[in-house]
Amino acid sequence: MLDDYHIAIKRLKQAFGLDAKDVETVISALFPDKIFPYTVWEQGYILLFNDYVLKKIKDLKKGWNSSFPTFDPCEHDIPQLHIYSDRIISFLRDISSIVLASDIEDGLNDITRYIYEKNGIDFHDDIKTLLNGLSCLEPEVGIRPFGFRWNLVIYLEEFQHIIKEKEIFLASFNFSFIAEMFIDTISVNKRDAVKHLLKCGHLLKREVKGISAEYVNMIEAMPDHPYEETPIELALPLEAVPAGPPTSSMREDASASPLTITLSSQWATKKPNEICALIQNEGHDAPVMAYYLLEKKRLNKTSIGKVLSKFLQLKPSEDDSGSTYRRRTKKFLEDAKAFTITFA
Predict the structure, then answer these.
(1) Domain ranges in the chain?
(2) Residue 263 phi/psi, 5° resolution?
(3) Residue 175 carries which DSSP code?
(4) Which runs of consecutive H residues, i.e. helices, occur in the chain?
(5) What pTM, to 2 d.p., does this model score?
(6) Pair 294, 333: CB distance under 8 Å
(7) From the first residue on, what is the mean pLDDT of each consecutive set of 10 residues in the chain (344 residues)?
(8) Which helix (H) or strand (E) holds 187?
């Protein structure tokens, strides 16, 4: 669910035997640029919360204006975990009144399987109560068209009645289990998190997926440095890179390498297509867009391929597995290695 450069807090707890205070210290040390509160949740529901579905919901439920939470690093001076978890709960409560319980179940299963390496066993009773309560209020439904499962033969009046019934159930349902598991789902920069823990005297207690003894030894051997990303190194000779107009960052810094690109970290709070438009306005193409969406927006390769295919009006993929999108994204990311990309 996460790439090789990021790790969920739960995995850190397992690997280093961390308690609640240790976790709080790690998050505070990496805040704001190295923590990603919503990434795991967004990956769990990325196929459900797409533009088509949200537009369909707004058409059927007038006045509905919910959207997936975004993390703004500049919003608070210190991490506000209760606010972040409340936003996830609020969104789940809104979306659960409209989509099928099975869709909510799919997302929760993906998240708990990644975080706890099993399907929700830590919160089995809470999840079962939620899903059972929603399911009993839903009518028979047809095949899901484009990710939206309500059968088109359901009349608007009946649809609104179902929504109302589910809203009543959800208003009284206790989502505290989401708040309890939320901190485990927060993802952080893996390298800097492990470096911080080693510097604070923590030792690796057990290997977990993503953190091996070999990886910890490699991090321990690295020299101390501020918490900053290592830019992509130049991978292609200058003559292999297509010529293009100088970017704004190049014009501002005459001493910079002609292959250095500086992008705004603040764009990460915007929607993927808006980010692509901003990058395009700076004079950059798909490779830079793909790198930004991966590093700052935390999208997976399939999602990046879909975003860029739509934005650039490329031929759509007919591969249901998403392999075409992943191959396309992989090619863009390989091309991005021709640049040194930094964030300001």
Answers:
(1) 38-185, 238-343
(2) -120, 155
(3) -
(4) 9-16, 20-30, 39-45, 51-60, 81-96, 101-116, 124-135, 156-172, 176-185, 190-199, 213-221, 248-252, 272-281, 286-295, 301-311, 323-336
(5) 0.62
(6) yes
(7) 83 95 95 91 71 61 69 88 93 84 85 76 84 84 41 60 89 93 94 94 94 93 57 32 38 49 89 89 89 88 84 62 77 87 89
(8) strand 187-189
